Amino acid sequence: MTRLREKDIDGLGANLLRLDGELYDICGAGLREIAARASGLLTVPEQGLKIGVVPVTAGLGIIGGFSSAVCSILRCLGAEAEITEETDAAGMYESLGRNEATILADDKIYFALNHKTGRLAENGSATGRGFAAALELAAGSLEGEQVMVAGAGPVGLAAADYLQKCGSEVIVYDIAPEKLKGLPYKVTTDIRGQAFAYILEATSSAEVIKAENLTDKTIISAPGMPLGVENASALRKEGRLIHNPLELGTAVMYMDLLL
Ligand code: PYL
């Protein structure tokens, strides 16, 4: 998992409505609807969860703006979100005493807990499903369609599972052959010269997806940070690229807590 930088999430809260509109233009659904679909939640309860966002100083420490970005995303989904006064274990304790749920991240894991139901949400799985659901909505249907998933890590494999369940024919690409062993999909370590109509890019490398991998209609859903797509601006302009650093994954985590 790539550690976000402050500049990756700078102004995120102020841009949520714009992102919602962009997602609507591409997928025919906004952040809340895509996240509910990814989570399998049939109806989103009117009353949001009261959730504590706990800053964590462990490892490389606090990322400036991270907790407030998470808070903004949760509030945009209808949650009553607040950042705890305390950090780390004291912050967790504070949240357990006054909220219905808690969300927090160190450098290894980003997870959320619903105190009442015990439901756990984890960002890698949530992000994979979120971007896969967005791709499915953008495509209209992926039944019988081939989708290339770049990156056999937790995000890519969660996406591959979701996409296979949508009836698509998944091919997973990774440069490390050992990561492809035993997967229930077609796999490859080489995509040179191959173009795909649908791509889910979930790698932590830049420019994994080259122009030769695209048709003039290719749609890319890219949770990967940094964005692993060459010449992304043309795709973005044509509404054929779904990419955001934290919003969709966090939104699916929240919906997972409501299951
Ligand atoms: C959750 C993001 C999504 C992509 N990479 C993940 C990441 O950057 N993880 C590190 C998050 C650290 C947060 C820090 C804080 O401000 O509480 N401990």
Quickly describe the structure:
With 259 residues, the chain is of the alpha/beta class.
Content of β-strand: 15-25%
**What sequence of helices (H) and strands (E) makes up the elements?**
HHEHEHEEEHEHEEEEHEH
Helicity, in percent?
Answer: 25-40%
User: Count of DSSP helices?
Assistant: 8
Terminal residue distance:
25 Å
**Average residue pLDDT:** 96
Biggest beta-sheet profile: 6 strands, parallel
Number of strands: 11
- Gross morphology is globular
In this entry the ligands are:
pyrrolysine
Uncertain spans: none
Strand order of the largest sheet: 8-7-6-9-10-11
Output the structural class.
alpha/beta
Radius of gyration: 18 Å
Question: Which key features would you list for this structure?
Answer:
259 residues, alpha/beta, five-stranded mixed β-sheet, 11 strands, 35% helix, binds pyrrolysine
Textual characterization of the structure:
A 6-stranded parallel β-sheet has the order 8-7-6-9-10-11. Strands 2-1-3-4-5 form a 5-stranded mixed β-sheet, sandwiched between helices. It starts with 15 loop residues before the first helix and ends with a helix. The longest helix has 17 residues, at 123-139. The protein has 259 residues and is of the alpha/beta class. It is 35% helix and 20% strand. It contains 8 helices and 11 strands. The chain binds pyrrolysine. Residues 1-4, 55-56, 62-63, 66-67, 105-107, 110, 123, 225, 246 line the site of pyrrolysine.
